[in-house]
Amino acid sequence: MITVHDAAGRLAAALGDGPAAKLAASALVEADALGLPRFGIAMLDEWTVDAAPVAASDGAQAINWLDCSSCFAPLAVASAALDLAGAARQFGIAAVFLRGVRGFGRLAPFVRHLADAGLLAIAGAEGPPFVAPYGGIHPVIGTNPLALAIGQGADRVVIDVATSTATMADIRNARVSGAPLPDGIALDGEGRPTSIAAEVAALLPRGGQIGSLLGLVVELVAGVAGGGRGDPKGRGVFILAFDPARAGDDVDWQARLAGLKRDWTTGGGHWPRGGSLSLETELDDDFAQRLDTHLARMTGRSAGR
Amino acid sequence: MITVHDAAGRLAAALGDGPAAKLAASALVEADALGLPRFGIAMLDEWTVDAAPVAASDGAQAINWLDCSSCFAPLAVASAALDLAGAARQFGIAAVFLRGVRGFGRLAPFVRHLADAGLLAIAGAEGPPFVAPYGGIHPVIGTNPLALAIGQGADRVVIDVATSTATMADIRNARVSGAPLPDGIALDGEGRPTSIAAEVAALLPRGGQIGSLLGLVVELVAGVAGGGRGDPKGRGVFILAFDPARAGDDVDWQARLAGLKRDWTTGGGHWPRGGSLSLETELDDDFAQRLDTHLARMTGRSAGR
Protein backbone atom coordinates (compact mmCIF):
# COMPACT_ATOMS: atom_id res chain seq x y z
CA MET A 1 0.00 0.00 0.00
CA ILE A 2 1.16 3.53 -0.75
CA THR A 3 -0.64 6.83 -0.32
CA VAL A 4 -1.37 9.18 -3.22
CA HIS A 5 0.91 11.68 -1.49
CA ASP A 6 3.89 9.36 -1.29
CA ALA A 7 3.43 7.88 -4.77
CA ALA A 8 3.14 11.33 -6.35
CA GLY A 9 6.19 12.52 -4.44
CA ARG A 10 8.35 9.64 -5.62
CA LEU A 11 7.18 10.03 -9.23
CA ALA A 12 7.69 13.81 -9.16
CA ALA A 13 11.27 13.29 -8.02
CA ALA A 14 11.90 10.91 -10.93
CA LEU A 15 10.42 13.49 -13.32
CA GLY A 16 12.77 16.22 -12.13
CA ASP A 17 10.90 17.58 -9.11
CA GLY A 18 9.98 20.98 -10.54
CA PRO A 19 6.44 22.38 -10.45
CA ALA A 20 5.51 20.70 -13.76
CA ALA A 21 6.88 17.37 -12.52
CA LYS A 22 4.80 17.66 -9.36
CA LEU A 23 1.61 18.51 -11.26
CA ALA A 24 2.14 15.74 -13.84
CA ALA A 25 2.98 13.17 -11.16
CA SER A 26 -0.06 13.94 -9.05
CA ALA A 27 -2.32 13.87 -12.14
CA LEU A 28 -1.13 10.39 -13.12
CA VAL A 29 -1.24 8.91 -9.61
CA GLU A 30 -4.70 10.38 -9.03
CA ALA A 31 -6.05 8.59 -12.11
CA ASP A 32 -4.89 5.24 -10.74
CA ALA A 33 -6.38 6.09 -7.35
CA LEU A 34 -9.70 6.89 -9.06
CA GLY A 35 -9.71 3.46 -10.71
CA LEU A 36 -8.82 4.85 -14.14
CA PRO A 37 -5.48 3.09 -14.70
CA ARG A 38 -5.38 3.73 -18.44
CA PHE A 39 -5.02 7.46 -17.63
CA GLY A 40 -2.52 6.82 -14.84
CA ILE A 41 1.10 5.78 -14.49
CA ALA A 42 0.69 3.53 -17.53
CA MET A 43 1.51 6.79 -19.38
CA LEU A 44 5.09 6.34 -18.14
CA ASP A 45 5.54 3.68 -20.85
CA GLU A 46 6.03 6.67 -23.16
CA TRP A 47 8.71 8.27 -20.99
CA THR A 48 12.23 8.19 -22.40
CA VAL A 49 15.40 9.54 -20.89
CA ASP A 50 16.05 11.59 -24.03
CA ALA A 51 12.61 13.26 -24.17
CA ALA A 52 13.02 16.90 -25.15
CA PRO A 53 12.77 19.46 -22.38
CA VAL A 54 9.32 20.98 -22.36
CA ALA A 55 9.24 24.12 -24.47
CA ALA A 56 8.37 27.18 -22.44
CA SER A 57 5.51 29.31 -23.67
CA ASP A 58 6.55 32.76 -24.80
CA GLY A 59 5.57 34.84 -21.77
CA ALA A 60 5.23 37.93 -23.94
CA GLN A 61 2.17 36.50 -25.69
CA ALA A 62 -1.36 35.78 -24.51
CA ILE A 63 -1.60 32.95 -27.03
CA ASN A 64 0.96 30.29 -27.86
CA TRP A 65 1.32 27.18 -29.99
CA LEU A 66 3.74 24.42 -28.95
CA ASP A 67 4.90 21.30 -30.77
CA CYS A 68 5.17 18.63 -28.07
CA SER A 69 5.98 15.66 -30.25
CA SER A 70 9.44 15.19 -28.71
CA CYS A 71 8.28 15.75 -25.11
CA PHE A 72 6.92 13.44 -22.43
CA ALA A 73 3.25 14.43 -22.79
CA PRO A 74 2.13 14.67 -19.12
CA LEU A 75 5.07 17.00 -18.40
CA ALA A 76 4.33 19.06 -21.52
CA VAL A 77 0.67 19.56 -20.56
CA ALA A 78 1.57 20.35 -16.95
CA SER A 79 4.23 22.83 -17.98
CA ALA A 80 1.84 24.52 -20.42
CA ALA A 81 -0.81 24.79 -17.69
CA LEU A 82 1.67 26.39 -15.30
CA ASP A 83 2.87 28.90 -17.90
CA LEU A 84 -0.73 29.63 -18.83
CA ALA A 85 -1.56 30.68 -15.28
CA GLY A 86 1.06 33.41 -15.52
CA ALA A 87 -0.09 34.58 -18.93
CA ALA A 88 -3.76 34.66 -17.87
CA ARG A 89 -2.88 36.78 -14.86
CA GLN A 90 -0.79 39.11 -16.98
CA PHE A 91 -3.20 39.59 -19.89
CA GLY A 92 -6.51 38.71 -18.21
CA ILE A 93 -7.05 35.87 -20.69
CA ALA A 94 -4.64 33.47 -22.38
CA ALA A 95 -4.58 30.23 -24.32
CA VAL A 96 -2.08 27.59 -25.32
CA PHE A 97 -2.34 25.03 -28.10
CA LEU A 98 -0.27 21.87 -27.94
CA ARG A 99 0.14 19.47 -30.84
CA GLY A 100 1.87 16.12 -31.22
CA VAL A 101 0.74 15.24 -27.68
CA ARG A 102 0.87 11.55 -26.84
CA GLY A 103 -1.00 10.02 -23.88
CA PHE A 104 -1.18 12.58 -21.09
CA GLY A 105 -3.98 11.23 -18.87
CA ARG A 106 -7.03 13.23 -17.80
CA LEU A 107 -7.71 16.93 -18.36
CA ALA A 108 -9.34 17.44 -14.94
CA PRO A 109 -6.15 17.79 -12.83
CA PHE A 110 -4.76 20.50 -15.12
CA VAL A 111 -7.87 22.70 -15.19
CA ARG A 112 -8.27 22.14 -11.44
CA HIS A 113 -4.75 23.45 -10.91
CA LEU A 114 -5.72 26.63 -12.78
CA ALA A 115 -8.90 26.95 -10.70
CA ASP A 116 -6.72 26.74 -7.59
CA ALA A 117 -4.84 29.72 -9.02
CA GLY A 118 -8.10 31.72 -9.10
CA LEU A 119 -8.78 31.30 -12.82
CA LEU A 120 -11.59 29.83 -14.89
CA ALA A 121 -9.96 27.21 -17.12
CA ILE A 122 -11.30 25.32 -20.12
CA ALA A 123 -9.40 22.55 -21.88
CA GLY A 124 -10.06 20.07 -24.64
CA ALA A 125 -8.23 17.33 -26.50
CA GLU A 126 -8.78 15.94 -29.96
CA GLY A 127 -7.49 12.59 -31.12
CA PRO A 128 -7.53 9.86 -33.74
CA PRO A 129 -10.85 9.36 -35.57
CA PHE A 130 -12.99 6.89 -33.63
CA VAL A 131 -16.32 8.75 -33.42
CA ALA A 132 -18.87 9.24 -36.20
CA PRO A 133 -20.73 12.53 -36.62
CA TYR A 134 -24.38 12.54 -35.55
CA GLY A 135 -26.34 10.98 -38.39
CA GLY A 136 -23.16 9.71 -39.99
CA ILE A 137 -21.60 6.30 -40.33
CA HIS A 138 -17.82 6.67 -40.47
CA PRO A 139 -15.42 7.79 -37.70
CA VAL A 140 -14.21 11.36 -38.17
CA ILE A 141 -13.18 12.79 -34.78
CA GLY A 142 -11.80 11.55 -31.48
CA THR A 143 -13.56 10.98 -28.19
CA ASN A 144 -12.69 14.68 -27.69
CA PRO A 145 -13.11 15.43 -23.98
CA LEU A 146 -13.90 18.95 -22.75
CA ALA A 147 -13.07 20.13 -19.24
CA LEU A 148 -13.78 23.26 -17.20
CA ALA A 149 -12.90 24.26 -13.65
CA ILE A 150 -13.52 27.29 -11.49
CA GLY A 151 -13.53 27.94 -7.75
CA GLN A 152 -11.87 26.61 -4.66
CA GLY A 153 -12.93 24.54 -1.71
CA ALA A 154 -16.46 23.22 -1.35
CA ASP A 155 -17.91 25.30 -4.20
CA ARG A 156 -15.30 24.28 -6.77
CA VAL A 157 -16.65 22.72 -9.95
CA VAL A 158 -14.60 20.51 -12.26
CA ILE A 159 -16.31 19.24 -15.39
CA ASP A 160 -14.46 16.64 -17.51
CA VAL A 161 -16.63 14.92 -20.08
CA ALA A 162 -15.98 12.87 -23.20
CA THR A 163 -18.13 13.71 -26.21
CA SER A 164 -18.51 10.05 -27.19
CA THR A 165 -20.64 7.28 -25.69
CA ALA A 166 -17.60 5.15 -24.91
CA THR A 167 -13.88 5.00 -25.50
CA MET A 168 -11.90 2.68 -27.74
CA ALA A 169 -10.45 1.22 -24.53
CA ASP A 170 -13.99 0.20 -23.51
CA ILE A 171 -14.35 -1.52 -26.87
CA ARG A 172 -10.99 -3.29 -26.50
CA ASN A 173 -11.99 -4.49 -23.02
CA ALA A 174 -15.28 -5.84 -24.38
CA ARG A 175 -13.39 -7.56 -27.18
CA VAL A 176 -11.27 -9.36 -24.60
CA SER A 177 -14.15 -10.25 -22.28
CA GLY A 178 -16.61 -11.04 -25.07
CA ALA A 179 -19.32 -9.05 -23.30
CA PRO A 180 -21.98 -7.46 -25.53
CA LEU A 181 -21.91 -3.66 -25.81
CA PRO A 182 -24.87 -1.60 -24.63
CA ASP A 183 -27.22 -0.37 -27.37
CA GLY A 184 -26.47 2.97 -28.95
CA ILE A 185 -22.72 2.87 -28.42
CA ALA A 186 -21.19 1.89 -31.73
CA LEU A 187 -21.53 1.18 -35.45
CA ASP A 188 -20.03 -1.57 -37.59
CA GLY A 189 -18.12 -1.07 -40.84
CA GLU A 190 -21.37 -0.73 -42.75
CA GLY A 191 -22.65 2.02 -40.44
CA ARG A 192 -25.16 -0.28 -38.73
CA PRO A 193 -25.66 -0.33 -34.95
CA THR A 194 -23.74 -3.16 -33.35
CA SER A 195 -23.32 -4.64 -29.89
CA ILE A 196 -20.43 -6.91 -30.92
CA ALA A 197 -17.11 -5.37 -29.91
CA ALA A 198 -15.15 -7.15 -32.64
CA GLU A 199 -17.35 -5.51 -35.30
CA VAL A 200 -17.01 -1.94 -34.06
CA ALA A 201 -15.81 0.52 -36.70
CA ALA A 202 -17.07 3.75 -35.14
CA LEU A 203 -18.29 5.02 -31.79
CA LEU A 204 -21.36 7.24 -31.54
CA PRO A 205 -21.48 10.76 -30.09
CA ARG A 206 -22.77 11.11 -26.56
CA GLY A 207 -26.32 12.41 -26.31
CA GLY A 208 -26.83 12.48 -30.07
CA GLN A 209 -26.57 15.79 -31.93
CA ILE A 210 -25.40 17.92 -29.02
CA GLY A 211 -22.53 15.59 -28.16
CA SER A 212 -21.57 15.47 -31.82
CA LEU A 213 -21.52 19.28 -32.06
CA LEU A 214 -19.52 19.55 -28.84
CA GLY A 215 -17.00 17.04 -30.20
CA LEU A 216 -16.83 19.18 -33.34
CA VAL A 217 -16.22 22.29 -31.18
CA VAL A 218 -13.25 20.56 -29.52
CA GLU A 219 -11.94 19.43 -32.93
CA LEU A 220 -12.22 22.94 -34.39
CA VAL A 221 -10.34 24.50 -31.46
CA ALA A 222 -7.70 21.83 -30.73
CA GLY A 223 -7.47 20.22 -34.15
CA VAL A 224 -8.04 23.03 -36.66
CA ALA A 225 -7.03 26.30 -34.94
CA GLY A 226 -4.62 24.48 -32.64
CA GLY A 227 -3.13 22.47 -35.48
CA GLY A 228 -3.45 19.04 -33.88
CA ARG A 229 -5.68 17.36 -36.43
CA GLY A 230 -4.09 14.69 -38.56
CA ASP A 231 -0.70 14.86 -36.83
CA PRO A 232 0.52 11.25 -36.66
CA LYS A 233 2.85 12.16 -33.77
CA GLY A 234 0.02 12.87 -31.32
CA ARG A 235 -3.09 14.74 -30.32
CA GLY A 236 -4.07 18.39 -30.27
CA VAL A 237 -4.76 19.83 -26.82
CA PHE A 238 -5.86 23.35 -25.89
CA ILE A 239 -6.03 25.05 -22.52
CA LEU A 240 -7.61 28.46 -22.07
CA ALA A 241 -7.85 30.44 -18.86
CA PHE A 242 -9.05 33.82 -17.75
CA ASP A 243 -9.06 35.77 -14.52
CA PRO A 244 -12.60 36.52 -13.32
CA ALA A 245 -11.23 38.88 -10.66
CA ARG A 246 -10.41 41.31 -13.46
CA ALA A 247 -14.10 42.28 -13.42
CA GLY A 248 -13.40 44.11 -10.17
CA ASP A 249 -16.07 44.72 -7.58
CA ASP A 250 -18.93 44.75 -10.10
CA VAL A 251 -19.01 40.94 -10.31
CA ASP A 252 -18.77 38.84 -7.18
CA TRP A 253 -18.11 35.61 -9.03
CA GLN A 254 -17.45 33.62 -5.87
CA ALA A 255 -20.88 34.47 -4.45
CA ARG A 256 -22.48 33.64 -7.78
CA LEU A 257 -20.64 30.29 -7.89
CA ALA A 258 -21.82 29.43 -4.38
CA GLY A 259 -25.39 30.40 -5.35
CA LEU A 260 -25.30 28.32 -8.53
CA LYS A 261 -24.00 25.30 -6.65
CA ARG A 262 -26.80 25.67 -4.10
CA ASP A 263 -29.45 26.02 -6.83
CA TRP A 264 -28.00 23.13 -8.88
CA THR A 265 -27.95 20.66 -5.99
CA THR A 266 -31.30 21.85 -4.58
CA GLY A 267 -32.74 21.36 -8.07
CA GLY A 268 -31.59 17.74 -7.94
CA GLY A 269 -28.42 18.03 -9.98
CA HIS A 270 -25.01 16.49 -9.30
CA TRP A 271 -22.29 19.13 -8.79
CA PRO A 272 -19.28 17.75 -10.69
CA ARG A 273 -16.00 17.73 -8.77
CA GLY A 274 -13.79 16.07 -11.38
CA GLY A 275 -12.76 13.18 -9.20
CA SER A 276 -10.25 14.76 -6.84
CA LEU A 277 -9.42 12.85 -3.69
CA SER A 278 -7.48 12.99 -0.46
CA LEU A 279 -3.70 12.78 -0.58
CA GLU A 280 -3.99 10.11 2.10
CA THR A 281 -5.96 7.79 -0.19
CA GLU A 282 -4.14 4.48 -0.40
CA LEU A 283 -3.25 2.61 -3.57
CA ASP A 284 -2.84 -1.14 -3.57
CA ASP A 285 0.30 -3.26 -3.83
CA ASP A 286 -0.22 -3.96 -7.51
CA PHE A 287 -0.01 -0.21 -8.15
CA ALA A 288 3.02 0.11 -5.86
CA GLN A 289 4.81 -2.62 -7.81
CA ARG A 290 3.99 -1.05 -11.14
CA LEU A 291 5.25 2.30 -9.87
CA ASP A 292 8.48 0.69 -8.66
CA THR A 293 9.05 -0.85 -12.07
CA HIS A 294 8.53 2.47 -13.83
CA LEU A 295 10.75 4.34 -11.38
CA ALA A 296 13.51 1.76 -11.70
CA ARG A 297 13.51 2.18 -15.48
CA MET A 298 13.38 5.99 -15.21
CA THR A 299 16.16 6.30 -12.68
CA GLY A 300 18.26 3.50 -14.10
CA ARG A 301 18.20 1.68 -10.77
CA SER A 302 16.83 -1.77 -10.09
CA ALA A 303 13.26 -1.98 -8.78
CA GLY A 304 12.71 -1.96 -5.02
CA ARG A 305 11.93 0.69 -2.45
CA MET B 1 -42.15 41.73 -50.26
CA ILE B 2 -38.80 43.10 -49.22
CA THR B 3 -35.32 41.62 -49.54
CA VAL B 4 -33.09 40.89 -46.55
CA HIS B 5 -30.68 43.48 -47.96
CA ASP B 6 -33.25 46.28 -48.13
CA ALA B 7 -34.89 45.46 -44.79
CA ALA B 8 -31.53 45.34 -43.01
CA GLY B 9 -30.50 48.60 -44.66
CA ARG B 10 -33.63 50.45 -43.52
CA LEU B 11 -33.35 49.07 -40.00
CA ALA B 12 -29.64 49.89 -39.78
CA ALA B 13 -30.40 53.50 -40.71
CA ALA B 14 -32.99 53.74 -37.94
CA LEU B 15 -30.46 52.31 -35.49
CA GLY B 16 -27.86 54.96 -36.34
CA ASP B 17 -26.16 53.42 -39.38
CA GLY B 18 -22.77 52.69 -37.81
CA PRO B 19 -21.07 49.28 -38.02
CA ALA B 20 -22.87 48.01 -34.91
CA ALA B 21 -26.22 49.17 -36.26
CA LYS B 22 -25.55 47.35 -39.52
CA LEU B 23 -24.55 44.12 -37.77
CA ALA B 24 -27.50 44.24 -35.36
CA ALA B 25 -29.98 45.03 -38.12
CA SER B 26 -28.82 42.22 -40.37
CA ALA B 27 -28.87 39.76 -37.44
CA LEU B 28 -32.50 40.56 -36.62
CA VAL B 29 -33.76 40.58 -40.20
CA GLU B 30 -31.94 37.29 -40.91
CA ALA B 31 -33.78 35.59 -38.04
CA ASP B 32 -37.14 36.55 -39.55
CA ALA B 33 -35.98 35.37 -42.95
CA LEU B 34 -34.98 32.03 -41.42
CA GLY B 35 -38.49 31.59 -39.98
CA LEU B 36 -37.38 32.38 -36.42
CA PRO B 37 -39.46 35.54 -35.79
CA ARG B 38 -39.06 35.46 -32.02
CA PHE B 39 -35.32 36.16 -32.55
CA GLY B 40 -36.03 38.78 -35.21
CA ILE B 41 -37.36 42.32 -35.41
CA ALA B 42 -39.74 41.53 -32.55
CA MET B 43 -36.68 42.49 -30.44
CA LEU B 44 -37.37 46.09 -31.49
CA ASP B 45 -40.22 46.13 -28.96
CA GLU B 46 -37.43 46.71 -26.42
CA TRP B 47 -35.94 49.66 -28.33
CA THR B 48 -36.42 53.05 -26.68
CA VAL B 49 -35.26 56.43 -27.90
CA ASP B 50 -33.48 57.04 -24.60
CA ALA B 51 -31.50 53.77 -24.57
CA ALA B 52 -27.99 54.40 -23.33
CA PRO B 53 -25.26 54.56 -25.95
CA VAL B 54 -23.44 51.27 -26.08
CA ALA B 55 -20.44 51.31 -23.78
CA ALA B 56 -17.19 50.83 -25.65
CA SER B 57 -14.90 48.09 -24.44
CA ASP B 58 -11.62 49.32 -23.03
CA GLY B 59 -9.29 48.75 -25.96
CA ALA B 60 -6.32 48.49 -23.62
CA GLN B 61 -7.57 45.22 -22.17
CA ALA B 62 -7.89 41.73 -23.62
CA ILE B 63 -10.85 41.08 -21.32
CA ASN B 64 -13.77 43.35 -20.50
CA TRP B 65 -17.04 43.32 -18.57
CA LEU B 66 -19.92 45.56 -19.63
CA ASP B 67 -23.23 46.32 -17.95
CA CYS B 68 -25.74 46.54 -20.80
CA SER B 69 -28.91 46.94 -18.77
CA SER B 70 -29.58 50.46 -20.13
CA CYS B 71 -28.70 49.59 -23.74
CA PHE B 72 -30.70 48.20 -26.66
CA ALA B 73 -29.44 44.63 -26.46
CA PRO B 74 -28.88 43.79 -30.16
CA LEU B 75 -26.78 46.93 -30.54
CA ALA B 76 -24.85 46.18 -27.35
CA VAL B 77 -23.97 42.64 -28.50
CA ALA B 78 -23.06 43.85 -32.00
CA SER B 79 -20.88 46.63 -30.63
CA ALA B 80 -19.14 44.24 -28.26
CA ALA B 81 -18.47 41.80 -31.11
CA LEU B 82 -16.94 44.57 -33.24
CA ASP B 83 -14.71 45.79 -30.40
CA LEU B 84 -13.73 42.20 -29.65
CA ALA B 85 -12.39 41.71 -33.17
CA GLY B 86 -9.94 44.54 -32.58
CA ALA B 87 -8.88 43.26 -29.18
CA ALA B 88 -8.40 39.69 -30.46
CA ARG B 89 -6.20 40.95 -33.27
CA GLN B 90 -4.18 43.08 -30.86
CA PHE B 91 -3.67 40.52 -28.09
CA GLY B 92 -4.15 37.28 -30.01
CA ILE B 93 -7.08 36.33 -27.77
CA ALA B 94 -9.77 38.42 -26.10
CA ALA B 95 -13.14 38.07 -24.38
CA VAL B 96 -16.05 40.28 -23.41
CA PHE B 97 -18.74 39.60 -20.81
CA LEU B 98 -22.05 41.42 -21.06
CA ARG B 99 -24.65 41.43 -18.31
CA GLY B 100 -28.14 42.84 -18.05
CA VAL B 101 -28.70 41.89 -21.70
CA ARG B 102 -32.34 41.74 -22.76
CA GLY B 103 -33.52 39.98 -25.92
CA PHE B 104 -30.79 40.20 -28.55
CA GLY B 105 -31.76 37.45 -31.01
CA ARG B 106 -29.43 34.66 -32.12
CA LEU B 107 -25.72 34.23 -31.37
CA ALA B 108 -24.86 32.89 -34.85
CA PRO B 109 -24.67 36.23 -36.72
CA PHE B 110 -22.24 37.67 -34.18
CA VAL B 111 -19.78 34.77 -34.16
CA ARG B 112 -20.07 34.58 -37.95
CA HIS B 113 -19.04 38.22 -38.18
CA LEU B 114 -15.91 37.39 -36.16
CA ALA B 115 -15.18 34.41 -38.42
CA ASP B 116 -15.40 36.77 -41.39
CA ALA B 117 -12.70 38.79 -39.65
CA GLY B 118 -10.41 35.73 -39.65
CA LEU B 119 -10.99 34.76 -36.02
CA LEU B 120 -12.33 31.70 -34.21
CA ALA B 121 -15.22 32.96 -32.06
CA ILE B 122 -17.16 31.26 -29.29
CA ALA B 123 -20.20 32.81 -27.60
CA GLY B 124 -22.78 31.75 -25.06
CA ALA B 125 -25.78 33.21 -23.28
CA GLU B 126 -27.32 32.32 -19.96
CA GLY B 127 -30.82 33.25 -18.94
CA PRO B 128 -33.70 32.81 -16.52
CA PRO B 129 -34.00 29.35 -14.94
CA PHE B 130 -36.16 27.15 -17.15
CA VAL B 131 -34.00 24.01 -17.44
CA ALA B 132 -33.47 21.33 -14.78
CA PRO B 133 -30.06 19.73 -14.26
CA TYR B 134 -29.66 16.16 -15.56
CA GLY B 135 -31.21 13.89 -12.95
CA GLY B 136 -32.86 16.85 -11.24
CA ILE B 137 -36.43 18.07 -11.04
CA HIS B 138 -36.39 21.87 -10.64
CA PRO B 139 -35.31 24.53 -13.17
CA VAL B 140 -31.88 25.99 -12.40
CA ILE B 141 -30.35 27.37 -15.62
CA GLY B 142 -31.51 28.86 -18.91
CA THR B 143 -31.72 27.29 -22.33
CA ASN B 144 -28.08 28.51 -22.54
CA PRO B 145 -27.06 28.38 -26.20
CA LEU B 146 -23.42 27.97 -27.24
CA ALA B 147 -22.11 29.13 -30.62
CA LEU B 148 -18.81 28.82 -32.49
CA ALA B 149 -17.69 30.02 -35.89
CA ILE B 150 -14.48 29.80 -37.89
CA GLY B 151 -13.62 30.10 -41.55
CA GLN B 152 -14.90 31.85 -44.61
CA GLY B 153 -16.70 30.80 -47.76
CA ALA B 154 -17.66 27.20 -48.43
CA ASP B 155 -15.65 25.76 -45.54
CA ARG B 156 -17.05 28.09 -42.89
CA VAL B 157 -18.66 26.39 -39.91
CA VAL B 158 -21.19 28.11 -37.63
CA ILE B 159 -22.49 26.08 -34.71
CA ASP B 160 -25.35 27.57 -32.65
CA VAL B 161 -27.03 25.10 -30.33
CA ALA B 162 -29.31 25.37 -27.31
CA THR B 163 -28.48 23.09 -24.40
CA SER B 164 -32.16 22.35 -23.69
CA THR B 165 -34.62 20.11 -25.50
CA ALA B 166 -36.97 22.99 -26.24
CA THR B 167 -37.46 26.65 -25.42
CA MET B 168 -40.08 28.26 -23.21
CA ALA B 169 -41.46 29.81 -26.41
CA ASP B 170 -42.11 26.29 -27.71
CA ILE B 171 -44.00 25.55 -24.51
CA ARG B 172 -46.03 28.76 -24.77
CA ASN B 173 -46.92 27.92 -28.38
CA ALA B 174 -48.05 24.44 -27.33
CA ARG B 175 -50.12 25.97 -24.52
CA VAL B 176 -51.93 28.11 -27.08
CA SER B 177 -52.40 25.34 -29.63
CA GLY B 178 -53.17 22.64 -27.07
CA ALA B 179 -50.83 20.24 -28.87
CA PRO B 180 -49.15 17.58 -26.71
CA LEU B 181 -45.41 17.93 -26.18
CA PRO B 182 -43.01 15.23 -27.39
CA ASP B 183 -41.77 12.83 -24.72
CA GLY B 184 -38.59 13.73 -22.88
CA ILE B 185 -39.00 17.50 -23.19
CA ALA B 186 -40.29 18.70 -19.86
CA LEU B 187 -41.19 18.06 -16.22
CA ASP B 188 -44.20 19.18 -14.18
CA GLY B 189 -44.07 20.92 -10.80
CA GLU B 190 -43.56 17.56 -9.06
CA GLY B 191 -40.59 16.68 -11.27
CA ARG B 192 -42.56 14.10 -13.27
CA PRO B 193 -42.32 13.86 -17.08
CA THR B 194 -45.23 15.63 -18.73
CA SER B 195 -46.50 16.17 -22.26
CA ILE B 196 -49.08 18.79 -21.20
CA ALA B 197 -47.79 22.28 -21.90
CA ALA B 198 -49.89 23.91 -19.16
CA GLU B 199 -48.23 21.69 -16.56
CA VAL B 200 -44.62 22.38 -17.53
CA ALA B 201 -42.45 23.61 -14.68
CA ALA B 202 -39.02 22.73 -16.10
CA LEU B 203 -37.44 21.85 -19.42
CA LEU B 204 -34.96 18.99 -19.72
CA PRO B 205 -31.37 19.28 -20.93
CA ARG B 206 -30.68 18.25 -24.51
CA GLY B 207 -29.09 14.84 -24.88
CA GLY B 208 -29.16 14.10 -21.15
CA GLN B 209 -26.02 14.51 -19.09
CA ILE B 210 -23.83 16.04 -21.77
CA GLY B 211 -26.34 18.77 -22.59
CA SER B 212 -26.75 19.44 -18.89
CA LEU B 213 -23.00 19.81 -18.41
CA LEU B 214 -22.71 22.04 -21.48
CA GLY B 215 -25.51 24.24 -20.12
CA LEU B 216 -23.58 24.39 -16.86
CA VAL B 217 -20.41 25.38 -18.76
CA VAL B 218 -22.29 28.31 -20.34
CA GLU B 219 -23.75 29.29 -16.95
CA LEU B 220 -20.32 29.20 -15.29
CA VAL B 221 -18.76 31.39 -17.97
CA ALA B 222 -21.59 33.86 -18.72
CA GLY B 223 -23.42 33.73 -15.42
CA VAL B 224 -20.73 33.21 -12.76
CA ALA B 225 -17.47 34.60 -14.20
CA GLY B 226 -19.36 37.01 -16.47
CA GLY B 227 -21.67 38.12 -13.67
CA GLY B 228 -24.95 37.63 -15.53
CA ARG B 229 -26.57 35.09 -13.24
CA GLY B 230 -29.49 36.33 -11.18
CA ASP B 231 -29.50 39.83 -12.69
CA PRO B 232 -33.19 40.76 -13.02
CA LYS B 233 -32.31 43.33 -15.70
CA GLY B 234 -31.22 40.74 -18.25
CA ARG B 235 -29.01 37.85 -19.32
CA GLY B 236 -25.30 37.21 -19.20
CA VAL B 237 -23.60 36.86 -22.58
CA PHE B 238 -19.95 36.12 -23.34
CA ILE B 239 -18.04 36.32 -26.59
CA LEU B 240 -14.49 35.06 -26.91
CA ALA B 241 -12.31 35.22 -29.99
CA PHE B 242 -8.75 34.38 -30.96
CA ASP B 243 -6.64 34.73 -34.04
CA PRO B 244 -5.51 31.35 -35.40
CA ALA B 245 -3.12 33.10 -37.81
CA ARG B 246 -0.92 33.93 -34.80
CA ALA B 247 0.35 30.35 -35.01
CA GLY B 248 2.31 31.41 -38.07
CA ASP B 249 3.30 29.00 -40.79
CA ASP B 250 3.43 25.99 -38.44
CA VAL B 251 -0.34 25.56 -38.50
CA ASP B 252 -2.27 25.83 -41.73
CA TRP B 253 -5.67 26.09 -40.07
CA GLN B 254 -7.51 26.79 -43.31
CA ALA B 255 -6.27 23.55 -44.88
CA ARG B 256 -7.16 21.66 -41.70
CA LEU B 257 -10.66 23.20 -41.71
CA ALA B 258 -11.20 22.19 -45.33
CA GLY B 259 -9.99 18.67 -44.50
CA LEU B 260 -12.25 18.36 -41.48
CA LYS B 261 -15.28 19.52 -43.47
CA ARG B 262 -14.49 16.95 -46.16
CA ASP B 263 -14.06 14.16 -43.58
CA TRP B 264 -17.19 15.22 -41.64
CA THR B 265 -19.47 15.27 -44.66
CA THR B 266 -17.92 12.13 -46.21
CA GLY B 267 -18.51 10.42 -42.86
CA GLY B 268 -22.19 11.25 -43.15
CA GLY B 269 -22.31 14.31 -40.90
CA HIS B 270 -24.09 17.61 -41.47
CA TRP B 271 -21.68 20.58 -41.63
CA PRO B 272 -23.43 23.32 -39.67
CA ARG B 273 -23.61 26.70 -41.38
CA GLY B 274 -25.61 28.61 -38.75
CA GLY B 275 -28.46 29.50 -41.05
CA SER B 276 -26.96 32.30 -43.12
CA LEU B 277 -28.77 33.17 -46.33
CA SER B 278 -28.60 35.33 -49.43
CA LEU B 279 -29.16 39.07 -49.08
CA GLU B 280 -31.64 38.73 -51.95
CA THR B 281 -33.89 36.41 -49.96
CA GLU B 282 -37.35 37.93 -49.83
CA LEU B 283 -39.48 38.44 -46.74
CA ASP B 284 -43.26 38.54 -46.97
CA ASP B 285 -45.64 41.48 -46.64
CA ASP B 286 -46.51 40.65 -43.07
CA PHE B 287 -42.84 41.13 -42.18
CA ALA B 288 -42.65 44.32 -44.24
CA GLN B 289 -45.62 45.76 -42.37
CA ARG B 290 -44.20 44.85 -38.99
CA LEU B 291 -40.90 46.45 -39.97
CA ASP B 292 -42.71 49.61 -41.09
CA THR B 293 -44.51 49.83 -37.77
CA HIS B 294 -41.27 49.47 -35.82
CA LEU B 295 -39.44 52.00 -38.00
CA ALA B 296 -42.26 54.51 -37.67
CA ARG B 297 -42.08 54.31 -33.91
CA MET B 298 -38.28 54.49 -33.90
CA THR B 299 -38.05 57.47 -36.24
CA GLY B 300 -41.13 59.25 -34.88
CA ARG B 301 -42.72 59.24 -38.31
CA SER B 302 -46.01 57.62 -39.28
CA ALA B 303 -45.82 54.13 -40.80
CA GLY B 304 -45.55 53.84 -44.59
CA ARG B 305 -42.68 53.50 -47.04
From TrEMBL, chains A, B:
This protein's UniProt keywords: Oxidoreductase
Keyword Oxidoreductase annotated: yes
Top-level lineage group: Bacteria
SUPFAM superfamilies: L-sulfolactate dehydrogenase-like
Keyword match Hydrolase: no
Listed PANTHER family: MALATE DEHYDROGENASE, OXIDOREDUCTASE-RELATED
Family: Belongs to the LDH2/MDH2 oxidoreductase family.
Protein name, as recorded: Ldh family oxidoreductase
